[in-house]
Design a protein that fits this description.
4 helices
Length: about 140
């Protein structure tokens, strides 16, 4: 039974990788289309602020997809979800939100909440990276 479950899990994870790769490919093509469309529309080679925000948001969305793909790939290889990669995805996602954020639509409590979230995720990422560096240096020192 456990062999069947491992095979099933492996199949699902591989399916997720292929679907995520397809989504990233299609999104990249769409981003290229939007970029060309915005460049050739008048005024030529100049972007409106809304167009820039849309392009930056789309660009960061693709990067989030790539990081999610990396998370799935790492899980397939190591059978462990790497917290560092998850925190990277969270940082990119919140950065995307901040870039496309219209400050007029939100009150100060929401803005403070987003700031607290950024600080918390950043500190968590720093702690995880520091621990990984310490673990790596300990492993290198232990080898003869």
């Amino acid at each position: 039974m456990t062999k069947w479950l491992r095979t099933f899990e492996h199949l699902i994870i591989r399916s997720l990788i292929y679907m995520m790769a397809l989504i990233i490919l299609i999104s990249t093509i769409e981003l290229g289309y939007l970029l060309v469309k915005d460049i050739v529309s008048s005024p030529v080679f100049f972007f409106e602020i809304d167009e820039l925000l849309e392009l930056f948001g789309f660009f960061l969305l693709i990067i989030i997809g790539i990081e999610l793909l990396e998370t799935i790939k790492a899980y397939l290889q190591d059978k462990v979800v790497h917290s560092e990669i998850v925190l990277e995805v969270a940082l990119i996602a919140i950065a995307r939100k901040v870039i496309i954020l219209d400050l007029k639509e939100y009150d100060s409590v929401v803005i403070l909440g987003i700031a607290a979230l950024i600080i918390t995720i950043s500190v968590s990422y720093y702690i995880v990276r520091r621990k990984l560096r310490i673990d790596l240096s300990e492993n290198l020192n232990q080898k003869p």
